[in-house]
Every structure is written in structure tokens, then in C-alpha cells.
From TrEMBL:
Subcellular location: Secreted
UniProt-listed Gene3D superfamilies: 2.40.128.20
Main location: secreted
Name listed for the protein in its UniProt record: Uncharacterized protein
One Pfam family per UniProt: ApoM
Naturally occurring in which organism (per UniProt): Labrus bergylta (ballan wrasse)
Length: 189
């Protein structure tokens, strides 16, 4: 009987130690390396945390947003298309970049984008730093909505970086179709 009591007590201690909340260091850790095969394809914007209310107001003017990654023809870089739906239609932006570990830096500005850790299996968490200052952090997913536990993690990550409360995208709004081949994309940073 005493063995059973000790076993139950040990199990209780183990479960309590496993449920210890993650620290901010754990929550906002960059990926060690980005898996390019995982990156390719379309990702819908689910939520964003922004550092500046001006960026938040601009963010709120979008009905939906997504990014699409594809391998460049030279196989040494990645193409990223960004698709935004506004009241007056879709806007398309294209970028070409080379990954360095878990980050890429724009050649035209001081913007560094880092892919961050997330426990959501079909999500991307991207942190944008401009001239050494955190500008925003976005949660993308293959789905339009993520589970509550994934949003709670994103809220905790937002608190860790001292961002504004996360702004959610409306999952009922349509996404822009792929850019028509006769419409050039604006080149972005």
C-alpha cells in the first residue's frame, strides 16, 4: 500500500514539474535552422502584434493577408510573395532573399526577419526588426484559424516582447488569389 502511495505522489510531482510555464527566453527563441521544404507554399496571416499604434492602424485596414514562399530558379534564394486584401482589391509584393540560419536581411533596408519557435505544428512565427528595433511579430498558419492553445502561446510571446495586444485577422474574409501573370508585383523589402 505504501508503495502505491509513493508512486502516486511521484506521478503528481512529475506532472506539476512538467506543467511549469515557459519563460520568455523559451517563448521568443529563434529557430536554429529553417526547413525550406516546410516553408514552401501559402501561409495565411492569423494575428500580429505590433509595437507602434501607427503600424496597428495600417494593419487593421487589411481584410486578409498571406505569404507564399517558393524556391527561386537559381536554387540559392527564396521568393516570398505577400498578398493583401483591402477594400479596393488585392495588392501584391514580391521579395527575393537568402536565408542565413533562421533569418534574412533585406538588401534595401535595415530590416531583418527571423523565424521564431512555436509549438503550433502548421504555423510560422516571424519577427521583424528594423534598424535593431523590434517592429512587429506575425503568426501565420496553413489554416485560417489556430487552436486556442496556439493563440494563448502567441499572446504570451507578444507580452514577452512588450508588444501591443495581438490583432486578429478575420478568418471569414477571403484571401487574394495568386497574382495574375500579367500583373507585376511591387518589389518590397
Amino acid at each position: 500500500m505504501s508503495f502505491a502511495v509513493c508512486a502516486i505522489a511521484l506521478l503528481c510531482l512529475v506532472s506539476v514539474s512538467c506543467s511549469t510555464p515557459l519563460t520568455c527566453d523559451d517563448l521568443v527563441r529563434p529557430l536554429d535552422q529553417v526547413d525550406l521544404s516546410h516553408l514552401e507554399g501559402g501561409w495565411a496571416l492569423v494575428a500580429g502584434t505590433l509595437m507602434d499604434p501607427v503600424y496597428l492602424e495600417r494593419y487593421k485596414t487589411r481584410h486578409s493577408a498571406m505569404i507564399k514562399f517558393s524556391q527561386a530558379s537559381d536554387n540559392s534564394s527564396i521568393l516570398m510573395d505577400r498578398l493583401f486584401l483591402f477594400d479596393d482589391g488585392c495588392e501584391y509584393f514580391a521579395s527575393n532573399f537568402t536565408l542565413e540560419g533562421s533569418s534574412y536581411t533585406s538588401k534595401r533596408s535595415n530590416l531583418t526577419v527571423t523565424f521564431m519557435q512555436t509549438s503550433c505544428p502548421d504555423c510560422l512565427l516571424m519577427r521583424f526588426v528594423d534598424s535593431g528595433k523590434l517592429r512587429n511579430m506575425y503568426l501565420f498558419s496553413r489554416r485560417r484559424e489556430v487552436e486556442q492553445k496556439d493563440m494563448e502561446e502567441f499572446r504570451a510571446q507578444s507580452k514577452c516582447v512588450k508588444g501591443l495586444p495581438p490583432a486578429m485577422m478575420d478568418p471569414t474574409k477571403e484571401l487574394c488569389p495568386d497574382r495574375p501573370s500579367d500583373q507585376p508585383a511591387l518589389e518590397s523589402q
